[in-house]
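#random but structural
TW: two for the price of one
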Amino acid sequence: MSRTDAERVESANTAFYEAMERGDFEGLSALWMDDGVFCVHPGWPVLSGRGEVLRSYALIMANTEYIQFFLTDVTVDVAGDTALVTCTENILSGGPAEEAGELGPLLGQLVVATNVFRRTPDGWKLWSHHGSPVLADSDGEEEDGAS
């Protein structure tokens, strides 16, 4: 049975996060289009161009001892040769340790992400990634009666 475009896009999206978890810069680089790409990391300015975008991931990987993504609320919408993925990145990460041989403190963070993919002769490739931190506490909002 052949896979649908939505399944292929979801696989490419999963591969993106798995490459980050493994610290696989070559694998992550292969998932991005060759040119015309954009990226917004939480709290960063817009990065444009393959070189600038990939340098940002090299910097993140070099300064992150451990990272794990638990993706929730994943939606995939394909329109022709473009696909839009939205998801919540439930991130567990740890920075460099104070003492050699130890893991730094683990921190949890919620980020909502939009990943835009384009169909290429080599499969679905990332065109744009935009991550925004989730600052609102949904539990508190529900108690206040807000929806």
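TW: number two ↓
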Amino acid sequence: MFLVFNKLIPVKGFAAMAVYPFIFVRSECKSYQHSERWQILIRHEKIHFEQQKELLLIFFYLWYVIEYFIRLVIHKNSNEAYRNISFEREAYKNEGNINYLSTRNRFSWLKHL
């Protein structure tokens, strides 16, 4: 895992974005690097790493974008569409569980479709 602090990726409004093996983090988030909030953020992104490995990265992003647009049609709200993507639902549900990555079953995101 490589952390990349910058002001461009992810776009404003998001704290971090995983693109295996990198986690891009907004520069303004660097200040809470040694907090519980930071641990949750990194765990969330590491869950995405596992999803990306399962789908060979390219299929993860293809599925992500297609599901986002389907959810956007359903919810008619971009934030709700984002929050309801199966990958995000799995990550948000389990980001607080420090043992999740060691007990996670492969393709667990499918339970959140």
